[in-house]
Design brief:
The longest helix is centred in the middle third of the chain and has 29 residues. The protein has about 550 residues and is an alpha/beta fold. Bound molecules: FE(7)-MO-S(9)-N cluster (CFN) and 3-hydroxy-3-carboxy-adipic acid.
Length: about 550
């Protein structure tokens, strides 16, 4: 493919060319030509840094990260957005989290959007009274086990004390767990701050509230950072169940309150999306002695590897054997489709710019059908998600790793010391992979000469498309139509373009087939926009 002869340094210079000097200096640190050393060391990339005003970023806000991402997919925590109505409406089921009740009685509040709908009066004279009323009305109508209150920007600006309201209302309504999130949209530099705020509150106010797990089945573990987009968690549950594993809680796809409240009773946490939930994994390890490691169920090979890793952790021969049987059985169909699709897709080029983990994980699926990722980046991930384990010694610089100290999380040795000791022992005896697998990142797995770009913007997207002419560009709804108008196929990796699942074995098959159809569809390149046929309709920007 001719695109592979393109000099990435030249593209990098082109991406920076139009910027004023100061902007160019900053973006230069966020656009990196990858080079992987013998020890997996990669160049440093600037990440988790404020977007320069004026740049059309693809990022979202802290409220989106807290309410939409981490808490959104849980069905029976009643969620009230405290703020003007827009934030509640636009964060209502747009993320395609699917849910299925555990029992016919289990509540589902996801089909509602609830908000205090603050008006001018509340902004000027304070909104706490209205919030109290909203909480009481919600309790009287729905009798929920738990209520989460989510602050939007104006709440922080006028200083409503949402935590005091939560405490008061909980006292007045014993039996309902009420907690509030100070997740005003402007906090931090992206969704990432909202993930952190959500993790901390769920850890302090929900985890550990219920000591009886719903089952005494063996090999109980939780999956952290899996949100059941397009039914991914359903497929993962199908596979783990078939293997004889017991997935206790998924944080937070297809989840229920009681599963969070008793999540301290499991023996292992595995982390799917590290960016959004690593805080929880670390706090649970510190307090309850639950070990964790990263897994990845995106990609058939990655799924097999993750299952083997979990089985190895439990050290049970029959389990290991069952896992091998399941992998062998599932891989028959996967291989058939994979080989057929590879004959048509081999050598084609992909670009991935998504959130904080998918731009990495989905490279696996493309690799399996012979496609190459020439450029990738996250919207809001941090350096460790890019650079992998080598960055760990430096990561203390990152404010987000300070949360254990902030919350003063202490080991609960009275109850969990034996588990902690056993887990620590396993870590030292464990395979390299168990120990170091925690630190895998995107760049060590990408070939030399590929471009890693943090917080990509529209201007740079247009240049990348023109220079590389990739066969598929993967991102979100904000990018979708800009890309398609250039004639290049576009795949949404947030909402899956309303398809899925893509996780696990059946998900891999779905993905191979869809990508095959998409990269071979000519329809977008044949369509001509009116200004391409009539140049007089084209606008141009003239400097004032
Ligand atoms: S489901 Fe996850 S996998 S949680 Fe995160 S970093 Fe978002 S909502 Mo969009 S698709 Fe995306 Fe990741 Fe983790 Fe989703 S790549 S941006 S905040 N994300
Ligand atoms: C968010 C949610 C989002 C947006 C998706 C998109 C999601 O960031 O607030 O831009 O297409 O996955 O729904 O990431």
């Amino acid at each position: 493919n001719s695109a592979l002869t393109i000099d990435p340094q030249e593209v990098r210079e082109e991406l920076l060319r139009k910027y004023p000097a100061k902007v160019a200096r900053k973006r230069a640190k966020q656009i990196v030509v990858n080079k992987v050393g013998d020890n997996e060391e990669v160049p440093e990339i600037l990440a988790n840094s404020r977007t320069i005003p004026g740049i059309l970023t693809m990022r979202g806000c802290a409220y989106a990260g807290c309410k939409g991402v981490v808490l959104g997919p849980t069905r029976d925590i009643l969620q009230i957005t405290h703020g003007p109505i827009g934030c509640a409406f636009y964060s209502w089921l747009t993320r395609r989290n699917q849910t299925r009740p555990r029992t016919p009685e289990s509540a589902n509040f996801m089909t509602y959007t609830m908000s205090t709908d603050m008006q001018e009066d509340n902004i000027i004279f304070g909104g706490e009274k209205k919030l109290r009323q909203a909480v009481q009305e919600a309790i009287d109508t729905f009798h929920p086990k738990a209520i989460g209150i989510f602050s939007t920007c104006p709440v922080g600006l006028i200083g409503d004390d949402v935590h005091a309201v939560a405490r008061d209302m909980e006292e007045k309504n014993p039996g309902t767990n009420i907690f509030a999130f100070s997740c005003e949209g402007y906090k931090g530099v992206s969704q990432s701050a909202g993930h952190h705020i959500a993790n901390n509150k769920i850890f302090t106010d929900v985890i550990g509230q219920l000591d009886t797990p719903p089952t005494d089945k063996p090999f109980r573990f939780s999956i952290l950072g899996e949100y059941n987009i397009g039914g991914d968690a359903f497929e993962i549950e199908r596979i783990t169940e078939k293997c004889g594993l017991t997935a206790h809680a998924t944080f937070s796809g297809n989840s229920e309150y009681d599963e969070f409240a008793s999540a301290h009773t499991v023996d292992l946490n595995v982390v799917m999306c590290h960016r959004s939930i690593n805080y929880m994994a670390e706090m649970m390890e510190k307090k309850y002695g639950i070990p964790w490691f990263k897994i990845n169920f995106i990609g058939a090979e990655a799924t097999a590897k993750s299952l083997r890793k979990i089985a190895a952790y439990f050290e049970d021969e029959a389990l290991k054997q069952r896992v091998e049987e399941v992998i062998a059985e599932e891989m028959v169909e996967v291989e058939k489709v994979r080989q057929e699709v590879t004959t048509r897709c081999e050598g084609k080029l992909a670009m991935l710019f998504v959130g904080g983990s998918r731009a990495h994980h989905y490279q696996e699926l493309f690799r399996e059908i012979g496609m190459k990722t020439v450029s990738a980046g996250y919207e809001f991930a941090h350096r460790d998600d890019y650079e992998g384990r080598k960055v760990i010694p430096n990561i203390v610089m990152d404010a987000d790793t300070r949360n254990i100290e902030e919350l003063n999380v202490q080991p609960d040795d009275a109850r969990y010391r034996p588990r902690r000791e056993k887990a620590a022992l396993k870590r030292f005896e464990g395979e390299e992979d168990l120990l170091f697998g925690n630190y895998a990142g995107m760049m060590p797995e990408m070939p030399d000469g590929t471009l890693a770009i943090d917080d990509l913007n529209h201007h740079e997207t247009e240049i990348l498309l023109e220079k590389y002419k990739p066969d598929v560009f993967c991102a979100g709804i904000k990018e979708k139509y800009v890309v398609q108008k250039t004639g290049i196929p576009m795949k949404q990796l947030h909402s899956y373009d309303y398809s899925g699942p893509y996780a696990g074995f059946r998900g891999a098959i779905n993905f191979y087939r869809e990508i095959d159809r998409l990269v071979h569809s000519k329809i977008l390149s044949l369509a001509k926009a009116p200004w391409q046929r009539n140049p007089e309709l084209a606008g141009s920007y003239v400097k004032p």
